[in-house]
Design brief:
Chain A: Keywords: Aminoacyl-tRNA synthetase, ATP-binding, Cytoplasm, Ligase, Magnesium, Metal-binding, Nucleotide-binding, Protein biosynthesis. Chain A: Tetramer of two alpha and two beta subunits. Chain A: This is Phenylalanine--tRNA ligase beta subunit. The structure holds 2 protein chains of 2 kinds. By secondary structure, chain A is α+β, with helices and mostly antiparallel strands. Chain A folds into 4 domains: 68 residues, Phenylalanyl-tRNA Synthetase, Chain B, domain 1 (2-Layer Sandwich); 201 residues, Phenylalanyl-trna Synthetase, Chain B, domain 3 (Phenylalanyl-tRNA Synthetase, Chain B, domain 3), CATH 3.50.40; 81 residues, Phenylalanyl-tRNA Synthetase, Chain B, domain 1 (2-Layer Sandwich), CATH 3.30.56.10; 195 residues, Bira Bifunctional Protein, Domain 2 (BirA Bifunctional Protein, domain 2, 2-Layer Sandwich), CATH 3.30.930.10. In chain A, 27% of the residues lie in helices and 27% in strands. Chain A is built from 15 helices and 26 strands. In chain A, strands 4, 5, 6, 7, 8, 9, 10, 11, 12 and 13 form a 10-stranded mixed beta sheet that branches. Chain A has a 7-stranded mixed beta sheet with strand order 18-21-22-26-25-24-23. The longest helix of chain A has 17 residues. Chain A is elongated and about 95 Å long. Chain B folds into 3 domains: 97 residues, Winged helix-like DNA-binding domain superfamily/Winged helix DNA-binding domain (Arc Repressor Mutant, subunit A), CATH 1.10.10.10; 102 residues; 184 residues, 2-Layer Sandwich (BirA Bifunctional Protein, domain 2). Helices cover 37% and strands 21% of the residues of chain B. In chain B, a hairpin with a 6-residue loop joins strand 17 and strand 18. Classes of the chains: A alpha+beta, B alpha+beta. At the A-B interface, strand 14, helix 8, helix 10, helix 11 and strand 18 of A face helix 12, strand 11, strand 12, strand 14 and strand 15 of B.
Chain lengths: 587, 503
């Protein structure tokens, strides 16, 4: 979940609530779903929140939400934009994997240290979330005064920059934190940031690049050029975003523009010229969705006046009008919809362009609930009658576990993930052999630890590991487990055959085959099934002291004295008798 | 009169005139001293004997003390070396004297400290002068040490000297309680009247019961306060006990239990849940994909509806995600990261048939997440999952249900923090007061399933759901510090054996 650093002094300044205490901010923030996690060294709050309201990834956005919560602002706000001067031309050489670009021009911004830090944080947080670590969308911010558009060229109709592809070993530029001209390929190979993000573009035939009249100045999504680096001196900015989805980068752009507008900047549109047509960006169009009064009441379990609902919408930074049949909205508050004969009251809700989380009218109901205060709701136990019960298998597991515990076994709970070494090699079992545990394991793709590479094919190895880790504890150690085992089986729908096994070990100085069989017998008697133990061979057990567990005529497992080779492998200095069989045999 | 054998023996051995110690009586009767002591106290209860107690003090040389008996006390050795070096006449350099004394290590400090204390001379500016009149030969501490070494009594020795030796750790002082027994007048009378030994038996035997002999015997008394040997029974694993408790509560609240595959298609684990395919939790870093072919069968119409929901959203004003969606990814098999895959299977009608509202379902089953192993995180843990399906459920019903559930575990004062999940709206993180510490802690995640989840599944009423890690509940209830001690092959058997059972 995203964590954003927000300084309470900045909050006081940006909300205009100069005398709010830190504590009171914390409470208000919790109500917004922003949880106080701690403080940075310089006293900024570290706030954690769900990754839906990405417009709150900076202090400007958090302050905006607070102003709505306090009722200082109401309804939808859209910053004024100036007409475009710049054009982003998308060249046909642009990499097909990353074809989209958007952006804006920012004028008259006052970037003090705090504002610049906040902008950088916002950029990073957006990269981490919506931008999917820059793969889906990446933001570049430049000092506009360092960019040379081509307005002076004879054939030009205005200022223009170009988004295009560049040969990895083609043009050079000086990257941020670099001290010499480098090709894009050299940046990926040698530059710190370049190495970090190389994976995003290294497979591309041509790399994404942005050019102005002077040449290459940005290598998205990897790094900007040093020439256009932003500082606290910068007053005019060029924001560009590239990515794999136009909507995503447009919304990221909107969030950045709203944050800068909150600092007093003027937003100037740009034209984005694709071969297929021209877009004007940033896209500040206000979306609308319709939600019924009834749905709001049912979902929240509260009866509302329409006036109240409209007020709650406006306090959420949304706009609400009563929808008139399928026509446009009528004014709220002057309506007749409170009357009895109103058919169905539906609100047409307008949604500001920084919101990225509103996919469905339900999301608007949630906003009403938050504005109303969910903790104001009175919990009630639903008046719904149903009959409870346990799953058949879980009842069986419990019954068998009770019997095992009655027989003196310590009930264990082991991991299902383990390694081939544990279930096969260390048990003397050959992979792919017919014996219990010898099945083809379901392997984890690209495992992160050599200890967890497969699902266990049988349960006895887990109990042997517990014995191995408890040789300093008092004996006897009689352990049992009922748990999942699995093997790969392509004839099963999920390709993994999952079974529950019952396994037990008796580790004691005088443990014998008979001890294990005695307990098996009791267990089988408890469950009224017939047990036979014809001799068998299993590499984990001593020859001549191993038997198949045959229940009601079906071979379901193995019982025997564990082979000394296996005992020594597990650092055990006393004999172990053991059994393992399929739980279903006791159904 | 009949008395137990040991009491009779003690009575017979005791005298009315001479005090006899327990040791004496033990020698005479052949009983163990503790048996004599016990018998004597029992006889005293009846008034037949008097028991006097006194404390004997005994001194014994420590190892260091024994060394000094051999070599002489360090300060005496220093003094002798000083006199030899002529320090009785004029001060001699300290280093030289110490060298001549043959002392080394901590013995030097000991010598210097006691040299001054005993008035053997002075130490000043690194020079040492000896008092020629001091009589190191008659050092009282040496005398006591020598006496102890010879096994002589030191009862007459100066108390202060003994204290000094004890504080120098050269002598151990031991105190022992000595009990002496004398017959009282009642005891003498009793003996004159005659006592018989009652027959005592150690164990009640089947033969005694059969013969009726038990009526004439006296049973030896056991020390019923003594520790008995350790005995161990089996015990249900504490996490299972907790799971059973949770299941009890939920069944009592009308929930039916779900079970289903641990390895499942991403479709059931994530796509049905309206988790976009490029969601960070779906990257390979967070999930355990299995190296097996894709799932064989998925309900085709459902796949289509789920894909539609992802791409276009549901309902008139619904929007989809601006994320890629591929059926290949949906069909890939992984270990489930949550048991909501079971909820999806059940709600789809493909597990136990079409479900008509109202329904309540739950599971307490294992899930797999690629997290860093630490005291509170495991790669595999149990998730409690539950949902209620009914017409017109509200957030208030959800709150009421969870308040009731957590109250069963002593967790009250539930707070609902608005939250975001891709699959529920509204969503809440649940916070509750720790029953012991009073701290506000996160105890679950909940919400109303979105239309984008329910519509493709063919559910046209409301479903509220919640989830919580069982281990978290266990740790809250028991205060375990490290979950690895109880779950997995690193489990400490002793800890499990000693863990209090759940009531």
């Amino acid at each position: 979940m995203p964590v954003v650093d927000v300084h309470p002094d900045e909050l006081r300044r940006l909300t205009g609530h100069e005398d709010k205490s830190d504590e009171s901010f914390k409470e208000d923030l919790f109500a917004l779903g922003l949880e106080f996690e701690g403080e940075t060294e310089d006293g900024a709050f570290q706030l954690e929140f769900g990754p839906d309201r990405l417009d709150r990834l900076s202090v400007e956005g958090v302050a905006r939400s607070l102003r709505y919560q306090y009722g200082d602002d109401r309804g939808v706000y859209v910053p004024k934009t100036n007409d475009p001067d710049f054009t982003f031309t998308v060249d046909e050489s642009v990499p097909e994997e990353r074809p989209y670009v958007t952006g804006a021009i920012i004028r008259g911004v006052d970037l003090d240290e705090d504002a610049l830090d906040s902008l950088i944080q916002l950029q990073e947080k957006l990269h981490a979330t919506m931008g999917r670590k820059r793969a889906k969308g990446a933001i570049g911010i430049h000092d506009l005064t360092m960019i040379q558009g081509d307005a002076l060229r004879e054939d030009s109709e205005g200022n223009s920059i170009t988004y295009r592809g560049v040969d990895p070993d083609g043009d050079t530029f000086v990257p941020l934190d670099g001290d010499r001209e480098m090709t894009p390929a050299a940046v990926l190979a040698e530059h710190q940031t370049g190495k970090q993000y190389a994976g995003l573009v290294s497979e591309y035939e041509r790399y994404p690049a942005i050019y102005d009249e002077l040449g290459l100045f940005s290598f998205p999504p990897v790094i900007n050029g040093r020439r256009t680096e932003v500082s606290t001196e910068s007053r005019e900015l060029l924001v560009e975003l590239t990515g794999t989805d136009q909507w995503t980068i447009d919304r990221m752009c909107n969030i950045v523009c709203y944050a800068l507008a909150a600092r007093g900047a003027t937003i100037e549109e740009v034209e984005v010229e694709y071969e297929s047509g021209t877009l004007v960006r940033p896209d500040f169009e206000v979306d609308t969705k319709r939600v019924s009064h009834e749905r709001i009441e049912t979902m929240l379990g509260v009866e509302f006046e329409t006036r109240e609902v409209a007020d709650l919408f406006e306090r959420s930074g949304l706009g609400a009008a009563l929808a008139d049949d399928d026509e446009g909205g009528a004014g709220v508050g002057t309506d007749a919809a409170d009357g009895d004969d109103a058919e169905e009251t539906v609100y047409e809700v307008s949604i500001p362009p920084y919101r990225v989380d509103v996919l469905h009218p339900l999301d608007l109901v949630d906003d009403v609930g938050r504005a109303y205060g969910f903790n104001e709701l009175d919990p009630r136990y639903p008046n719904v009658g149903t009959v409870g019960g346990r799953h058949e298998r879980s009842r069986l597991e419990d019954a068998v576990r009770n019997s095992l515990v009655g027989l003196g076994f310590e009930d264990m709970l082991n991991f299902h993930m383990t390694s081939e070494a544990e279930v096969q090699e260390r048990m003397g079992v050959e992979a792919g052999s017919e014996v219990l545990g010898g099945g083809d394991p379901a392997e984890i793709t690209g495992p992160y630890s050599e200890d967890y590479t497969i699902l266990r094919t049988w349960a006895l190895p887990s109990l042997m590991m517990v014995l191995e880790n408890n040789t300093h504890r008092a004996y006897p150690q009689d352990l049992a487990e009922i748990g999942l085992v699995a093997e790969r089986d392509d004839s099963v729908n999920t390709r993994v055959k999952e079974r529950r096994h019952v396994a037990g070990v008796l580790a004691r100085h005088d443990a014998t085959f008979e001890d294990a069989k005695a307990r098996l017998q009791t267990l089988c008697r408890d469950f009224a099934v017939d047990l036979e133990t014809p001799p068998t061979e299993h590499p984990s057990f001593i020859d001549g002291r191993a038997a198949s567990v045959v229940v009601d005529g079906e071979d379901v497992g193995v019982v025997g004295e564990v082979h000394p080779r296996v005992l020594v492998e597990h650092d055990l200095e006393l004999p172990v008798a053991a059994f393992e069989f399929d739980l279903d045999a006791l159904r | 009169m009949k008395l137990p054998e040991s009491q009779v023996a003690v009575l017979n051995a005791a005298s009315a005139t001479d005090e006899q110690t327990v040791g004496d009586l033990a020698d005479e009767t052949g009983l163990k001293p503790e048996t004599v002591t016990q018998a004597a106290f029992e006889l005293r209860e009846e008034g037949y004997v008097a028991v006097e107690e006194r404390t004997d003090v005994d001194y014994e040389l420590t190892e260091e003390g024994r060394e000094y008996v051999e070599d002489g006390l360090p300060e005496v050795r220093l003094y002798r070396a000083a006199v030899e070096a002529g320090a009785a006449d004029s001060a001699a350099p300290m280093g030289q004297v110490i060298g001549a004394s043959g002392l080394g290590g901590p013995a030097v400090d000991i010598a210097l400290a006691n040299f001054g204390r005993k008035g053997y001379g002075d130490i000043d500016s690194g020079e040492l002068s000896a008092d020629g009149d001091a009589d190191a030969g008659e050092d009282p501490e040496s005398t006591v040490l020598a006496a102890l070494a010879d096994g002589q009594s030191v009862d007459d020795a100066d108390e202060a000297t003994l204290e000094q030796l004890v504080s120098r750790n050269l002598v151990d002082r031991r105190e022992e309680t000595v009990r002496s027994v004398t017959l009282t007048d009642e005891g003498v009378t009793l003996l004159m009247e005659g006592v018989e030994t009652a027959e005592t038996v150690d164990r009640l035997t089947p033969e005694m019961l059969a013969s009726g002999e038990w009526e004439d015997v006296e049973f030896t008394e056991y020390n019923v306060e003594a520790d008995a040997p350790e005995t161990r029974g089996g015990k249900t694993h504490i996490l299972r006990q907790t799971a059973d408790r949770v299941k009890d509560v939920l069944v009592g609240m009308g929930f039916q239990e779900m079970q289903g595959p641990h390895a499942d298609a991403d479709f059931w684990i994530n796509d049905c849940l309206f988790m976009p395919q490029d969601h960070p939790a779906r990257t390979h870093w967070d999930r355990f994909a299995l190296d097996v072919p894709p799932i064989e069968d998925l309900p085709e119409d459902l796949v289509e509806r789920v894909e539609d929901a992802h791409r276009k959203g549901v309902g008139r004003d619904g929007d989809g995600y601006h994320s890629p969606w591929s059926e290949d990814f949906a069909r890939a098999i992984a270990l489930r990261g949550h048991t909501t895959s079971l909820s999806m299977r059940y709600l789809s009608g493909h597990e136990v048939g079409e479900l008509e509202p109202p329904q309540r379902y739950f599971s307490v089953e294992k899930v797999y997440r690629n997290d860093t192993l630490d005291p509170t995180h495991l790669l595999e843990f149990y998730q409690i999952e539950g949902w209620v399906m009914a017409d017109d459920l509200s957030v208030r019903d959800l709150m009421g249900t969870f308040e009731e559930f957590y109250a069963q575990f002593g967790i009250t004062d539930i707070q609902f923090k608005p939250h975001y999940n891709p699959y529920t709206e509204p969503s809440f993180e649940l916070f509750g007061r720790h029953p012991e510490t009073g701290e506000l802690i996160e105890i679950g995640n909940s919400g109303m399933f979105r239309d984008e989840v329910l519509e493709p599944l063919g559910v046209d009423c409301d479903v509220m759901a919640w989830g919580l890690a069982l281990e978290r509940l266990l740790m809250l209830m028991y205060g375990f510090d490290d979950i690895r001690d109880v779950h997995g092959t690193m489990s400490d058997i002793e800890l499990l054996r000693e863990t209090e059972v759940l009531r």
